[in-house]
């Protein structure tokens, strides 16, 4: 069944069955809605844990790895967030599904490197959760290149993308980026710094666009500069998007998703035209 997400994600790749997914949630309403939605859209059967004891038992009973967990912050037997801490300590990728949320809580969740957090405060909550799950389970199909001369910046962006289950390559300069792109034509997105010593982000983008169009590779520029005109210059050089540092995780992930969604839509249209 084709799936169109709230944010514009399109998926028609069929069943995602096979991945072991746990749902730590005590609400009968939400467990029923989530189970039904995931089965209907992606043929996914989830394991439901209604309290902390059941969650621990689910982990201990099988050696099969848990691909993803969806967890409420508070569960019976874990009213102070112990269930989430348990999943994080086990290095299980986790999407938080919660009805209570404050700014401080958001910062704490991001610091724990959760995959995503979904609020139960709107009628689209389950649809948003389904999209987040679908993205995580399919993001490994996307290969992203990070280009930055700062080792710290490369590590930060790389860890963010790997948290979301992307395949990631890194380059410390423009010359290396061109070599990696030549050897890996499956790269669909490049995130590049502007200020680099050998080839700056503008020149790198121009050179890439001489042989690789936006229908094959999306390019996002990033910079810590206060010059607001950099975005215009970057887009004129052939870039598709631009983000000023510092940016928050949600903004970065949204921009990545939007560019990859656009890439897939363009490629789908081109494929239809070529086969017509």
- Please list the strands of the largest sheet in the order they lie side by side: 4-3-5-6-7
* Derived structural class: alpha/beta
Query: CATH homologous superfamily name of the largest domain?
Result: Response regulator
Radius of gyration: 20 Å
What shape does the CA trace take? globular
Unreliable segments of 5+ consecutive residues: none
Reported CATH architecture of the largest domain: 3-Layer(aba) Sandwich
CATH class of the largest domain: Alpha Beta
Order of helices and strands: EEEHEHEHEHEHEHEHEHEHEH
Find the CATH topology of the largest domain.
Rossmann fold
How would you describe what is shown here?
The protein is of the alpha/beta class and 276 residues long. The protein has two domains: 3-138, Response regulator (Rossmann fold, 3-Layer(aba) Sandwich), CATH 3.40.50.2300; 142-275, Response regulator (Rossmann fold). It is 44% helix and 18% strand. The protein has ten helices and twelve strands. A five-stranded parallel beta sheet has the order 4-3-5-6-7, with helices on both faces. Helix 1 (28-42) crosses helix 5. It is globular and about 55 Å long. It starts with a strand and ends with a helix. The model has no long low-confidence stretch (mean pLDDT 93). Pfam families: Response_reg. Keywords: Phosphoprotein, Transcription, Transcription regulation. This is PleD family two-component response regulator.
């Amino acid at each position: 069944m084709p799936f169109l997400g709230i944010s514009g994600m399109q998926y028609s790749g069929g069943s995602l069955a096979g991945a072991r997914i746990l749902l730590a949630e005590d609400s009968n309403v939400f467990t029923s809605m989530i189970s039904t939605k995931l089965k209907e859209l992606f043929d996914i059967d989830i394991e439901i844990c209604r309290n902390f004891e059941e969650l621990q038992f689910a982990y201990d009973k099988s050696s099969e790895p848990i691909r993803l967990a969806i967890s409420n912050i508070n569960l019976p037997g874990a009213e102070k967030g112990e269930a989430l801490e348990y999943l994080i300590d086990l290095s299980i990728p986790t999407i938080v599904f919660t009805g209570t949320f404050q700014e401080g809580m958001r910062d704490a969740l991001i610091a724990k490197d959760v995959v995503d957090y979904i609020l139960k405060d709107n009628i689209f909550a389950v649809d948003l959760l389904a999209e987040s799950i679908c993205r995580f389970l399919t993001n490994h199909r996307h290969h992203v290149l990070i280009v930055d001369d700062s080792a710290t910046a490369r590590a930060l962006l790389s860890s963010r993308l790997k948290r979301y289950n992307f395949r990631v390559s890194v380059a410390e300069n423009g010359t290396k980026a061109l070599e990696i792109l030549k050897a890996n034509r499956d790269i669909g997105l490049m995130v590049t710094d502007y200020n680099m010593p050998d080839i700056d982000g503008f020149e790198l983008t121009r050179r890439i666009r001489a042989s690789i169009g936006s229908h094959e590779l999306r390019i996002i520029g990033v910079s810590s500069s206060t010059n607001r005109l950099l975005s215009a210059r970057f887009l004129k050089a052939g870039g598709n998007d631009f983000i000023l540092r510092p940016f928050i995780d949600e903004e970065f992930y949204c921009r990545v998703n939007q560019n990859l969604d656009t890439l897939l839509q363009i490629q789908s249209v081109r494929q239809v035209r070529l086969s017509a």
